[in-house]
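Fold this: ABC transporter permease subunit
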Amino acid sequence: MNTTLKMREVGLKLVMTVIFTALAVVMVTPFLWMISSSFKLPADIFKYPIDWIPERFVLDNYKEVWFGKYPFLLYYWNSVKITAITVGGCLITSALAGFAFAKLKFKGRDFLFVLYLATMIIPGQILLVPRFILFDKLGMLNTHLSLILPGMFTVLGTFIMRQFFSTLPNELLEAAKVDGAGYWRMFWQISLPLTKPALVTLLILTFTWHWNEYENPLIFLRDNKLYTIPLALTNYVDENSTNYTLIMAASVSALLPLIAIVSIFQKWFIEGIASSGIKG
């Protein structure tokens, strides 16, 4: 009986492995084609059968993308600056708010948290006009601050950190309090170092959102020199609608930071998702 069950388990694992391997191949193939096409001449991009390794390997597409009419070097700097400051601010505010909602006892805490979560049902598009008017009055329109400041506060980030802080035993903080530790020390030296998986999860999510953000830069930025990567990609599609090799090179360049971030922090990201209770 046990042998039969083990054989069924092994067979099920084998079938699932084959299925997920096939799905992975289907998902990865377009990205491999995009990378391959970015090193080809325009005449070779639609050659059939596909030359996954280009016969004529060229770097001119990347030279044009990075130093041409729409220099990605400038747009990369804009996106890196906006994303880095926004993500850093988001991690700080979310960690502080999450700790307060999870470990500090004050009147109306749970009601305030539920009310804060309820703001997630408000579509972001509804707030565009009030934000546009506000930043116009403050003189922040057509500046990177109009993208950075709103992005530093996120309900989902507070929820993730609150869920993770809630898993920490209260006895740990009570022992620190007996030893004379204040709230700041309990947060900074005791609780925060234990929340690395949650912080990495939030880092990856917010980095992805703000790196790929298109709508807000399109509305709040007018100067071409302030554009971010998504707006630069739009320019490439408009200007080079038939030159697919340039579009592929620009797309690969835009994806590299996302691939690097996820690859580096994948281990903590999976652990943070499991610990915070987020499900797809």
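The chain has a mean pLDDT of 84. Residues 2-37 form the longest helix (36 residues).
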